[in-house]
Amino acid sequence: MNSFGRLFRVELFGESHGPAVGALVDGCPPGLPLSAEDFEADMARRRAGAAGTTPRRESDLVSILSGVHASFSTGSPICLSIPNKDTRSADYNQFHALPRPGHADFTSMKKYSGFSDPGGSGHFSGRVTAGLVAAGVIAKKILPFARFNTEVRSGVPGKTLDELVVEAVAREDSIGAIVEVVVRGLPVGLGEPFFDACESVLAHLLFAVPAVRALEFGDGFAAAGMFGSEHNDPIIDASGKTSKNGSGGINGGISNGNDLVLRVAVKPASSIARAQRSFDFSKNAMAELIIEGRHDACIALRSAVVIEAATAIGLADLYLTDRGLYTRDVENPWRKA
Amino acid sequence: MNSFGRLFRVELFGESHGPAVGALVDGCPPGLPLSAEDFEADMARRRAGAAGTTPRRESDLVSILSGVHASFSTGSPICLSIPNKDTRSADYNQFHALPRPGHADFTSMKKYSGFSDPGGSGHFSGRVTAGLVAAGVIAKKILPFARFNTEVRSGVPGKTLDELVVEAVAREDSIGAIVEVVVRGLPVGLGEPFFDACESVLAHLLFAVPAVRALEFGDGFAAAGMFGSEHNDPIIDASGKTSKNGSGGINGGISNGNDLVLRVAVKPASSIARAQRSFDFSKNAMAELIIEGRHDACIALRSAVVIEAATAIGLADLYLTDRGLYTRDVENPWRKA
Amino acid sequence: MNSFGRLFRVELFGESHGPAVGALVDGCPPGLPLSAEDFEADMARRRAGAAGTTPRRESDLVSILSGVHASFSTGSPICLSIPNKDTRSADYNQFHALPRPGHADFTSMKKYSGFSDPGGSGHFSGRVTAGLVAAGVIAKKILPFARFNTEVRSGVPGKTLDELVVEAVAREDSIGAIVEVVVRGLPVGLGEPFFDACESVLAHLLFAVPAVRALEFGDGFAAAGMFGSEHNDPIIDASGKTSKNGSGGINGGISNGNDLVLRVAVKPASSIARAQRSFDFSKNAMAELIIEGRHDACIALRSAVVIEAATAIGLADLYLTDRGLYTRDVENPWRKA
Amino acid sequence: MNSFGRLFRVELFGESHGPAVGALVDGCPPGLPLSAEDFEADMARRRAGAAGTTPRRESDLVSILSGVHASFSTGSPICLSIPNKDTRSADYNQFHALPRPGHADFTSMKKYSGFSDPGGSGHFSGRVTAGLVAAGVIAKKILPFARFNTEVRSGVPGKTLDELVVEAVAREDSIGAIVEVVVRGLPVGLGEPFFDACESVLAHLLFAVPAVRALEFGDGFAAAGMFGSEHNDPIIDASGKTSKNGSGGINGGISNGNDLVLRVAVKPASSIARAQRSFDFSKNAMAELIIEGRHDACIALRSAVVIEAATAIGLADLYLTDRGLYTRDVENPWRKA
Q1: Are B99 and B92 in contact (CB under 8 A)?
Q2: Which stretches of chain A drop beneath a pLDDT of 50?
Q3: Which residue has the higher pLDDT, C116 or A167?
């Protein structure tokens, strides 16, 4: 059931240590300029290497197998393949018997009756998000009017994320963080009632990103402790501009033209170097678990661009749906030049 | 785009002050005992009347138009209609020109080019959730092993919700709250990777509920400030039981057999009796806005059963999907030889 | 699984002898003029009464429960309910034990484990197509440029349909026929490759209509015996006009601007007054079966408007999808006046 | 919109002269034995080479990029890639200006505003069906109880297909044919009312296959000229066996356990060596068109396995859906009490 979208559709494939990961993108309008280089910047943001991130190195070159001709999208499905190179399958074989806390080892073993690919968590690996980032690049081209601003913040009041990452590395541990996405320039009108509310579509995508534990729009959880007179956003001009933005840019499930503001909580990476306890199914007893291999001290640093991509994909689908059902604006933004 | 689900499908219809609201439920297996009385308890939980809720009175009798024969589901679509009785359309005509803060008045006017029904917020009214609650009753019957426990809590540390409701009424204002749902008894295995992760499906539904601003599973936002060694849940027996439940019962997007725990932030109702400011499109200037009529001081009190219903609907769809794709409990026909 | 469509979505509900049949129509753009009277003409075409049709009388008044305000569509789901009045449930109770040839009695009993509604074939009744006809009325409003011409013809070379109907009535039997739909005025471009080819979308809908056994576009089955030089349609001007229309107005799954031409074979009604043989499950032996009650001698006479409606629904969905994904034509046809 | 299916989902990608064609298959249950060799037999049936087929030679080796581990399906999406090798893009560049009769040249140029890939008809090429055949191999594994028998027949009464192919080659022309698929061994119960009737799901897929002009089940078009007493199939035993099979194994949209019988008309290939006329958009006048390159004299010979694959895909999706929604073969959890 690995597909998303009504008009702009994305399906992800691949396992961490298989031949490739990637995305099949359907419903991309024809005429968007698109080439392999367009993916490089976002793929680099997701790639490992910075402080707090795993030393696994992948060049992450995106190969376009279909749907692009003469450097323009054709309107037919775009298959994006990203070969895996730096794979070490042997690291993971033990975890079917001794499941890692926080991972899908136990649940996937049960759900798939032992047939799921254990290597690097298989299809449950964060590696699969490489395809999501690639699809996000196309989504952003469908939304040329939208400007994304994405930041990673500490989830601990009074400490910086840098301090926490240093502390986590020293502890042989990992640390969570907050990722905030602000989207400027959106038109009024994105979001379909009831079930395809703007928040619903984005939430569906964002909670699919591994390690996301929570999501809020605008005032978010703080709104649960506010009075209506504090939380409501007064409209102050004919464009729909509001004097504050407690709603995060969405009213009644429809974008209101103000900044879209959302925050997700990214949990600390489940794989940590320090010893943990788990249940050993081969011995029917508790056992100590040591996870060898490569770990991210703060996975949120690499999740940020993934979360931005998921946001862009949802907005692109809502934008095309809105164009199909309503005809307020008619100029084709991407075929102008 | 008002439909949800893959196998268990729900579509809502109706406007606040139209002839009826309701739900069309498709994919209900045949043979479930079902009659009009089955809806009464949950409809009563949603209905107005308690302290802090609107005095609008609806009997909320659910009429079964199809899909049930001799008090059992037949397997064909179940149309549930809930007539509107206590309607006062005249209250709302002004809000196309002077949109209420926090409501969909401005966004729906723009998106639907002025054709949306203004009466009682039309299709954007919380009244539409009556159909969702009715569909939730059927979903719970599909999940006879699941026990739902749903609570409303204060969103303000140090104050009780009762105190806040009294304060809100005194201020001619409204107050937000937290709704927590715990589901016990779920099997391991609900949730499809990647995009139909258990959290994704539930989040899609929960953010469709009016007034929901935020959602978290397990440790939620707190996980953003935790170390991995603190957040990870060690598995302690062969059933997959964990010694703590930071993940809220889901790993890798798949239910792990422990309690499913989620919390949503419900914003304070946007309609308040005290005066507010908004932009008057007829005068092209700011103006004072007084919302006459009936208001909820704490809409979360009535949203709780709606949120529980949304949770049940998502789980029912995941349960049926899991039955279709995997055959743990029955013989696997293609794995025999 | 009783729903169809990507943007223009239709879901049918109801049983022959239940309280009502109807349709829930989602994705209707706002601003279409719509009132109960708009349904009358097509509902009358479907209604019984002409020579060769059943004497069951239904007024078939369409009640609009939602989605229409001040005689315009609002953009929210339109629930259309058509109450059943002339019901005679007792006629049908025997057929669970002694299934009627050609009907769904046996298959529905098995699939739904005996829980399906037997009355008048329940959800398998042709009565359910009343909702489809109503949805078709809305679809045609979405396609103001399209002109539908639908005809019923004899399926026997050398005999007229009138002759055959007389003969069928005399035999206490029923007779099949051909229904041809021609749609003029369609734009170039409706149909999505690969799986949502124009023919695929229409075929999906048309084979859902009870009693349809076959479907062909343009030359249809005759094309299987033609040379390419005979079947190919030369383009003769810059609008894409072809000198003949062997393709039925579709190339590569996309409408080409010429007339869309399709024909379906409607089988003879399965219910006939003359005695038949079937297997009596209560006696575990063959038995004679007499079907009392009301029968259509030529169901195709009433199916014609149903088939036209199905065609319109598919085209409306393809039209809105095309508008969403591509922006060649921008003027909103229904908001002009 | 290039995807199909509810639980067993197939999406096709690729262009005739691009890097690869292929399929992304989602919803394949875990535990099916699967390796690259499994695809060889059906891919060979589709491949060129026999009398009447194009001399284009492709080895058609299927590369499994994901979803298979240790020669078993894992339950995650299976990406199948089939590289293109024998490509000759230059053959096709002229057809944007001088569209070939019967091809998508004109319609795709218009729909995609000139951005569609012209090489070998791009995504509109029959080459894309290689991915469908590969997906069909997996579908057949999901249906181990089903036996497919597929035959190609002449569409001209009194002539054999061999004679017609010889005649077509001599004429520098092409010839159509009939493909019949019979599926034995299906269980009772496949097919969902109303819109996902067994015939509807299969028709959707079959009309997506390039060159299909018509489709009939059982008696098909002949039923339009039959009396009900001739067309009805009497049930003769407790298994639902019928004494004849005019319905083609489907009643009320649900498989009845008898042979499923369908026939499609495959048009003559549009590309023929002999001269044709078309409209030259560069000269705004009619012109002679010569299609150089490789042609199939009878494309139906290669379409047969494609049509069989489409049938298998539809049945696999209906089978998994039926397992999800109904529990005839296992215990019904909600009917216990």
Answers
A1: no
A2: 328-337
A3: A167
Q: Say how far apart CA D22 and CA A275 lie, in whole Å.
A: 44
R_g of chain D, CA atoms, integer Å: 22
How far apart, in whole angstroms, are the C-alpha atoms of residue A128 and residue A16?
7
Using DSSP's 3-state secondary structure scheme, residue C276 falls into strand
Please state, in angstroms and as integers, the Cα–Cα distance from residue C167 to each residue in C116, C163, D174, D231, following that order: 35, 6, 43, 16
Neighbours of chain D (3+ CB pairs under 8 A): A, B, C
Interface contact B141-D334, CB threshold 8 A: yes
Q: What ipTM was reported for this prediction?
A: 0.95
Q: In what order do the strands lie in the sheet with D78-83?
A: D3-4, D9-14, D20-26, D78-83, D63-64
CB atoms within 10 A of CB C237: 12
| Per-residue pLDDT tens over the stretch A291-326 | 987 789 999 999 999 999 999 999 999 999 998 876
Cross-chain CB nearest to A224 (options B155, B204, B276): B155
Which positions in chain D touch C110 (Cβ < 8 Å)? Answer: 188-189, 240, 328
| Mean local confidence (pLDDT), C35-57 | 84
Task: Give the CATH number, domain containing residue C222.
Answer: 3.60.150.10
Q: How many residues does chain D have?
A: 337
Residue B127 lies in a domain: yes
Query: For C282-313, what is each residue's pLDDT tens digit?
Result: 999 999 999 987 789 999 999 999 999 999 99
Q: With a cut of 60, say whether residue D231 has pLDDT above it.
A: yes
Residue at token pair 């300029």: A33
**Residues B264 and B13 sit within 8 Å (Cβ to Cβ):** no
Tokens standing for C219?
């030359």
Residue C332 lies in a domain: no
Question: CB–CB of B24 and C11 under 8 A?
Answer: yes
Identify the closest residue of chain C to B20 by CA–CA distance.
C65
Q: Does residue A188 lie in a domain region?
A: yes
- Chain C positions contacting chain A at CB under 8 Å are 6-7, 27, 29-30, 75-76, 193, 320-327, 330-332, 335
Distance from C-alpha of C6 to C-alpha of C322, rounded to nearest angstrom: 11
Give a yes or no: residue A204 inside a domain.
yes
**Facing A11 at nearest CB: one of D18, D77, D123:** D77
Q: Which amino acid is at D316?
A: A
The whole-angstrom distance between residue A142's C-alpha and the CA centroid of its chain comes to: 18
Whole-number Å distance between alpha carbons of C280 and C274:
18
At residue A60, the pLDDT reads: 87
Residue-level pLDDT at B311: 98
Total structural domains in chain C?
Answer: 1
Number of neighbours of residue B337 by Cβ within 10 angstroms:
6
- The per-residue DSSP string of C177-223 comes to EEEEEEEESPPTT---SSTT-HHHHHHHHHTTSTTEEEEEETTGGGG
Q: Which residue of D has its CA nearest to B333?
A: D144
Mean pLDDT, chain C, whole residue set:
91
How close, in Å, is residue A214 to chain B by CA atoms?
A: 4
Contact D239, D187 (CB under 8 A): no
**What band does C255 get if pLDDT is binned at 50, 70 and 90?**
very high
Phi and psi angles of residue C136, each rounded to the nearest 5 degrees, phi first: -65, -35
Both structure tokens of A67: 């749907």
Pair D66, A20: CB distance under 8 Å: yes
The verdict on whether omega for the bond into residue D8 sits within 30 degrees of 0, i.e. cis, is: no
Contact A223 B188 (CB under 8 A): no
Instruction: Give the domain range for residue A144.
Output: 3-325
Q: Which residues of B touch C (CB under 8 A)?
A: 1-3, 7, 9, 11-15, 18-22, 24, 26-27, 30-31, 63-67, 69, 72-79, 81, 111-113, 115-119, 122-123
